[in-house]
Amino acid sequence: MNYFDGTLKKIVADFSTLEEVEGILFAGSHISENQDEYSDIDLYLYVDREISITKRKKITEKYSDYMEMNNRFWETEDDGFLIDPHMGIEFIYRDFNWIKEELENLLVKHIARLGYTTCLWYNFSTSKILYDRDGRLKNLQEQFRINYPLELKNNIIQKNYPILREIIGSYYHQIGKAIKRDDIVSINHRVAALLASYFDILFAINELPHPGEKKILKIIKSTCRLIPENMEENINTMIQHISYSPKNILIEIDKLIDNLDNLLEKVNSSM
């Protein structure tokens, strides 16, 4: 589907008339060609100051049959459904100076986080520019179209690896306590956190920006050159154990991390 010949083109034209808008980027699964029937259109509007809800509503209501204005659960968003084509759309509003600072913290200062460290870099660098008032978004994309920094790679591994299993407060030990308490909610929560750090490490090993949580195993298989042995089997079995046999979760986590250890040893020995 060519999104740029119809409604999306008109939406971009309307928003580009607002003096607050620095630029508009098209991102998400439609850009990576990883979309399916459930995929929304993700439209990122970079601004130098906040656009009033009144202005946003005047534009979005022209093209939608349902729109939730000013959702602030993650970022500032207007979320709803287009009339034509009838599909979901998310308008995400970001401050230009904020994205610039976030990318500098990541790619200049090499600050790592627990899980999803490089997702913002992936999102911004793979976005398609639909409007760029003064060329600042293009310049920012070009500035950070760089090889994966070695210091960032090491920092991500050093920050996320110990909390998998190594330290007292690790996810592994937290899951073990939750199993003893028969606390299924806590088990589920900590397994998700463990996987977030695990995948952060894996994408760092492969020196690839993290694409986010959707379809992640499929993406890993298609993009990562270095993958721990039996990764997908271990993860699938571990998740199944959450509901049916929680006591066996730690066995699969041990396998998962042991195989990650083997991969890290191979990578380190080849350097």
Strand order of the largest sheet: 3-4-5-2-1-6
Label the CATH architecture of the largest domain: 2-Layer Sandwich
CATH topology of the largest domain, by name, is Beta Polymerase, domain 2
Q: DSSP strand (E) fraction?
A: 15-25%
Give average pLDDT, whole number: 92
Number of domain modules: 2
> Class by helix and strand content?
alpha+beta
Q: Extract low-pLDDT stretches.
A: none
What's the number of extended β-strand segments?
A: 6
In a few lines, what is going on in this structure?
Strand 4 (76-82) and strand 5 form a beta hairpin. Helix 12 (231-244) runs antiparallel to helix 13 (249-269). The protein has helices at 7-15, 29-32, 53-63, 96-107, 119-126, 136-143, 150-160, 162-166, 171-180, 184-205, 216-223, 231-244, 249-269, and strands at residues 21-27, 41-47, 64-71, 76-82, 88-95, 128-132.
Tell me about this structure:
53% of the residues lie in helices and 15% in strands. It is an alpha+beta fold and 271 residues long. The mean pLDDT is 92.
Comma- or semicolon-separated keywords:
alpha+beta; Beta Polymerase, domain 2; 13 helices; 6 strands; 53% helix
What is the topology?
Blueprint (H helix, E strand, L loop, with lengths): L6 H9 L5 E7 L1 H4 L8 E7 L5 H11 E8 L4 E7 L5 E8 H12 L11 H8 L1 E5 L3 H8 L6 H11 L1 H5 L4 H10 L3 H22 L10 H8 L7 H14 L4 H21 L2
Parallel strand pairs: 2-5
Antiparallel strand pairs: 1-2, 1-6, 3-4, 4-5
Helix pairs in contact: 1-3, 7-10, 9-10, 12-13
